[in-house]
Amino acid sequence: xxxxxxxxxxxxxxxxxxxxxxxxxxxxxxxxxxxxxxxxxxxxxxxxxxxxxxxxxxxxxxxxxxxxxxxxxxxxxxxxxxxxxxxxxxxxxxxxxxxxxxxxxxxxxxxxxxxxxxxxxxxxxxxxxxxxxxxxxxxxxxxxxxxxxxxxxxxxxxxxxxxxxxxxxxxxxxxxxxxxxxxxxxxxxxxxxxxxxxxxxxxxxxxxxxxxxxxxxxxxxxxxxxxxxxxxxxxxxxxxxxxxxxxxxxxxxxxxxxxxxxxxxxxxxxxxxxxxxxxxxxxxxxxxxxxxxxxxxxxxxxxxxxxxxxxxxxxxxxxxxxxxxxxxxxxxxxxxxxxxxxxxxxxxxxxxxxxx
Length: 356
Known about the structure:
By secondary structure, the protein is mainly alpha-helical. It folds into two domains: 1-174, no CATH class; 220-356, no CATH class. It has 17 helices and no strands. It has helices at residues 3-25, 38-41, 46-60, 81-106, 109-125, 139-148, 154-172, 184-199, 203-220, 229-234, 237-254, 258-273, 287-294, 312-322, 328-333, 339-342, 344-355. The radius of gyration is 21 Å and the shape is globular. Residues 5-27 have low confidence and may be disordered.
């Protein structure tokens, strides 16, 4: 075969693969997403489409950073090398989720290859510990895998599922303390278990973990006021919103606890709209908050003002769960955030849920 013939054959094969990928990514059933018709849903959404591509292209410029074990929870030194490595690793999960959506939207193999290579790298290197906080940021891997799994080779898909099963097994073995069994640790733990159950298509485990979420709700959120135990113990909207983010994911995937999640969100919204978010951590019962505040973690400084931009993710997720439009007054509070660019994943996800 001549060089010219070889080039023509390679171009033809690439065209076939891209055509297959585009068709396959836009039509198959998934275990997490309400629809994979991303390209169709983005029709007429020029700015969102452009931002999704920009975010995905930026992600592809970064090499995967898998680590053997994650370590961010409980760290009080901002310069801790394990913390820095973990934060770089968390970036992988965010990037993979964006790249998977870009693959579903545009059908370009470079996005698919990035997702595949990153997930395989993590499955080969990372050994899950089951820690509820260290591993909660890996949720992007699960959302991404569910979008691309039908396009993976059988052995690649099996390797990644084996990794997810190891993660779930480690979580089953996790032992909670007297406080963490009721606070945001348990909420994020249940969020990840439910995501794993869905991706692994384990209906029996999903029913058990959803029931566990309902039981946890009774100790975690006051059904009448929406106040979380995290807000009571930490005296900080920061941790109330962090806890709420996990509940929103649980509600989205199970339709569990919708009224209580609404109540917890209204507590948040009222605080924000009434400009009642000064004095963070003033009465916190957690020693780690004082340590972090003194060592330069800006969000944890005693008597600080809550950064309302941190609520953007919860606001977007809430409107996804309820399918309600974004509240104009809340949007105005976070207007300094380039939402469609910074939170492209959440905007696209919201769009897909609204169209389902």
